[in-house]
Design goal:
Elements (H helix, E strand, L loop, with lengths): L10 H8 L5 H21 L4 H18 L12 H19 L15 H4 L3 H24 L2 H12 L4 H8 L3 H26 L1
Helix pairs in contact: 1-2, 2-3, 2-6, 3-4, 6-9, 7-8, 7-9, 8-9
Length: 199
């Protein structure tokens, strides 16, 4: 079982590449890495699906303008906080531009309550953790065999009975427990490494 991570640029290297607006590969990589995080956070703030896509696009535009002079200094703050600020400002502008009639969602709740963002920090942290979990799961796909992943999915993710899972996968119950333990430990290692890299 390999312990390598997917072939991606390091966080700091990617940020350095983003300083060059013409580096389309860097911007695609940024969008691949953070697009779903931005979309999910926008959804939590009450935006519709098409508006969430606009938020991703507007975030990229905003960053394209600011990145040429950007110097990443972890002593001044984390990238996570910087990205949250950019995305929050984009969402704020998006919601502020909506006419009152469009500020109501399907349940009649006012979208402009998302501007006040009472749970903004919790929403961002939840999506940030989900983002790291999605990235870690890509490595799990590459590092563990099909049966280990199937055992983990059935027993740890879906909550199926260990004995039934073992019988269905032609494994022992102990193998089910071991697969769960190894994958959970590896996910924790991967997430820890990602968090340290990104700040």
């Amino acid at each position: 079982m390999s312990r390598s991570t997917p072939n991606e640029s390091t966080h700091v290297t990617l940020l350095a590449r983003l300083r060059e607006p013409a580096d389309q590969a860097a911007w695609r990589e940024f969008c691949d890495r953070y697009g779903e995080l931005i979309r999910a956070f926008a959804r939590r703030r009450g935006l519709q699906s098409t508006d969430c896509d606009d938020v991703v696009q507007d975030t990229l535009i905003s960053m394209t303008k600011s990145m040429p002079g950007f110097e990443y200094d972890p002593q001044k703050g984390s990238f996570r906080a910087y990205l949250k600020t950019v995305v929050r400002n984009v969402i704020f502008r998006k919601l502020s531009q909506k006419p009152l009639a469009q500020s109501l969602d399907m349940d009649g709740a006012r979208r402009d309550s998302a501007i006040a963002a009472p749970n903004e920090e919790n929403d961002w942290e939840t999506e940030w953790r989900q983002y790291h979990l999605r990235i870690a799961m890509r490595s799990i796909e590459a590092e563990f065999n099909d049966k280990d992943r199937a055992a983990f999915d059935a027993y740890a993710v879906r909550g199926c009975d260990a004995r039934e899972t073992a019988a269905r996968l032609l494994l022992t119950v102990d193998q089910i427990y071991q697969a769960k333990s190894r994958i959970v430990r590896r996910i924790a290692e991967l997430v820890e490494a990602q968090v340290q890299e990104e700040g």
